[in-house]
Amino acid sequence: MVRIVEHPLAGNFLRDLRNKDTQIEGFRKAMGKLGLLLAMEATKDLKTMEGTVVTPLEVEARCTYTQDGRVLLVPILRAGMGLVESFLELLPSARVAHVGMYRDHETLEARTYLDTVPSNTGGFDRVLVLDPMLATGNSSVKALEFVIAKGYSPQQITLVCAFSVRQGLDQVNKKFPDVSIVTAVIDPGLNEKSYIVPGLGDAGDRLYLI
Question: Do the beta carbons of residue 165 and residue 187 sit within 8 Å?
Answer without folding.
Answer: yes
